[in-house]
Design goal:
single chain, 251 residues, alpha/beta, Cobalt-precorrin-4 Transmethylase, domain 1, Methyltransferase, Cobalt-precorrin-4 Transmethylase, Domain 2, 2 domains, 5-stranded parallel β-sheet, 5-stranded mixed β-sheet, 8 helices, globular, binds S-adenosyl-L-homocysteine
Length: 251
């Protein structure tokens, strides 16, 4: 809905899922086809961008690890600026906007500037990659909980994770943005008491045509990553549930 009080446009933070257009929600598709301008980052696939009607402006604000094309503050500002010019601004984000997507920071900024917004959930990488690799994130008797953590940290800061909380052998740990600090993450998890031979997997470009999967163990993750030359976007999954995947992969 356009913002009546200020004449400003409306911004919708739309989750685009892991990359395959089939995994968009109908609501996401609705907004992709109706936005007056589309603001997207690197994780939004070309196939999904292909659904944007011809002639609609697409603004790339791509962020790749270590080289931000636009700083988050600049993206926040851009959304405000676009909302003063357009009725419907669609901010497309990979996965779910509210899972390691900084969507909430954009929402805070919009509120501060009196701009109305909505959020459309998307399939987050953990769900998309779990299904694609046939790794259930929970399984009775094997994983009673699941944790999503990020392996990324602000420049100059260490990883801010309470490692001891990841030691539960019946917890699946899903690590977003984990490649850069992989050695550090693995060492910390083992030191905190997670068994080195805990099954693990790397899923690169999960739920897309380019998907690659390697099944390994916690201690061998760094080696497997090197051997397979895994690149972002890759998701790491650690836990007993990987054993189930080996069974579920038999069609
Ligand atoms: N908001 C997104 C996450 C953004 S952080 C979501 O909900 O999924 C970016 C990280 O997500 C990547 O570094 C990677 O770890 C993970 N990721 C996103 N899409 C992925 C995919 N298709 N395959 C594997 N990992 C993915």
């Amino acid at each position: 809905m356009p913002n009546q009080a200020t004449d400003n446009g409306h911004v919708v933070l739309v989750g685009a899922g892991p990359g395959d257009p089939d995994l968009l929600t109908l609501r996401a598709l609705h907004f992709i086809q109706r936005g007056d301008v589309i603001v997207h980052d690197r994780l939004v696939s070309d196939e999904i961008l292909g659904l944007v009607p011809e002639g609609v402006e697409k603004v790339f604000v791509g962020k790749a690890p270590g080289r931000h094309i636009l700083k988050q503050e600049e993206i926040n500002e851009l959304l405000v600026e676009l909302a003063t010019k357009h009725k419907l601004v669609v901010r497309l984000k990979g996965g779910d906007p509210f899972v390691f997507g900084r969507g909430s920071e954009e929402a805070e900024h919009l509120i501060k500037h009196g701009i109305s917004y909505d959020v459309v959930p998307g399939i987050t990488a953990a769900a998309g990659c779990g299904a694609a690799a046939r790794i259930p994130l929970t399984h009775r008797g094997m994983a009673r909980s699941v944790r999503f953590i990020t392996g990324h940290h602000k420049e100059g800061h260490g990883l801010d994770i309470d490692w001891a909380t990841l030691a539960d052998p019946e917890m699946t740990v899903v690590i977003y943005m984990g490649l850069k600090n992989l050695n550090n993450i693995v060492a910390n998890m083992i030191q905190a008491g997670r068994a080195p031979d805990t099954p693990a997997a790397i899923v690169e470009n999960g739920a897309t045509e380019k998907q690659r999967i390697a099944y390994t163990s916690l201690q061998d993750l760094p080696q497997t990553r090197l051997e397979g030359d895994f690149k972002p976007p890759s998701l790491l999954i650690v836990g007993q549930v990987i054993e189930i995947a080996k069974i579920l992969n038999h069609d």
